[in-house]
């Protein structure tokens, strides 16, 4: 017959008079440690919809859906799938909006009866090319670029017009008769292809 070692016997006796190491959950709500990495959440005031986090996510837990119909209400929906996320924090590390567009909070109780509910999302306005309707970027992203470029933004009509529209001092430039991809279309918000068409000399 094997007898317990003295040290283990001491631990067993001691445990009779000490508090348990486990918490009283679910009797009492569990408060996670301040450095706990829980569910990432998009910040609609900071996120630019640039998709850098989607590129960086190793688990494919971030996706986006673009809707361009109707064109004057085009939207980008950024989606985070809680059931796929591994809480690695790469999205927050990659976020170009000072790491504040998506932030890992301390939310940890993430069970669902219906898996279709295991996601959260935000919507951002999209900017389309004013000539061909191609998606350029979100309006937030273009305005962010203009702020970063400062006076250099005025070298590119797409960037400075997007900023002026955000400030409410420029209207949509949608005059169909001028959609000829020629010089008359230069001062518009354009995709790369249409910008090239309007920049090169007409042959
Ligand atoms: S925490 Fe990791 S797995 Fe979860 S969304 Fe961010 S990058 Fe993807
Ligand atoms: S701003 Fe940050 S959170 Fe928003 S799409 Fe870009 S990387 Fe993702």
Brief digest:
The protein has helices at 6-15, 52-56, 90-94, 139-149, 157-167, 192-199; strands at residues 40-42, 62-67, 75-81, 102-104, 119-128, 135-138. With 203 residues, it is of the alpha+beta class.
Label this structure with key terms.
203 residues, alpha+beta, Alpha-Beta Plaits, 2 domains, four-stranded antiparallel sheet, two-stranded antiparallel ribbon, 6 helices, 6 strands, 25% helix, binds iron/sulfur cluster
SSE map:
Layout: H1 6-15, E1 40-42, H2 52-56, E2 62-67, E3 75-81, H3 90-94, E4 102-104, E5 119-128, E6 135-138, H4 139-149, H5 157-167, H6 192-199
Antiparallel strand pairs: 1-4, 2-3, 3-5, 5-6
Helix pairs in contact: 4-5
The structure holds iron/sulfur cluster (2 copies).
| Structural class determined from secondary elements | alpha+beta
- How many beta strands in the DSSP annotation? 6
Distance between the termini: 100 Å
* Helix count from the secondary structure assignment: 6
Named once each, the bound ligands are: iron/sulfur cluster
Mass-distribution shape: elongated
Mean pLDDT reading: 87
Question: What string, H for helix and E for strand, traces the elements in order?
Answer: HEHEEHEEEHHH
Topology-level CATH name of the largest domain: Alpha-Beta Plaits
CATH architecture of the largest domain: 2-Layer Sandwich
Identify low-pLDDT runs.
Answer: none
Number of domains: 2
Q: At the first level of CATH, what is the class of the largest domain?
A: Alpha Beta
The percent range for helix content is: 10-25%
Largest sheet: 4 strands, antiparallel
């Amino acid at each position: 017959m094997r007898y317990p070692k003295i040290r283990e016997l001491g631990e067993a006796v001691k445990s009779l008079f000490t508090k348990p190491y486990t918490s009283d959950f679910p009797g009492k709500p569990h408060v996670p440690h301040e450095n706990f990495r829980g569910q990432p959440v998009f910040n609609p005031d900071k996120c630019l919809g640039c998709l850098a986090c989607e590129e960086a996510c190793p688990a494919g837990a971030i996706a986006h859906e673009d809707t361009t119909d109707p064109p004057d209400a085009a939207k980008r929906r950024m989606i985070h799938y809680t059931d796929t996320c591994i809480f690695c924090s790469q999205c927050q590390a990659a976020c170009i909006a000072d790491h504040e567009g998506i932030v890992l909070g301390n939310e940890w109780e993430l069970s669902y009866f219906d898996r279709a509910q295991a996601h959260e999302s935000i919507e951002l306005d999209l900017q389309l090319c004013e000539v061909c309707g191609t998606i350029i970027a979100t309006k937030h992203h273009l305005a962010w670029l203009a702020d970063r470029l400062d006076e250099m933004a005025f070298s590119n009509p797409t960037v400075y017009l997007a900023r002026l529209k955000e400030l409410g001092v420029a209207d949509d430039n949608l005059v169909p008769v001028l959609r000829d991809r020629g010089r008359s279309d230069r001062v518009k918000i354009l995709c790369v292809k249409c910008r090239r068409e309007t920049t090169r000399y007409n042959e």
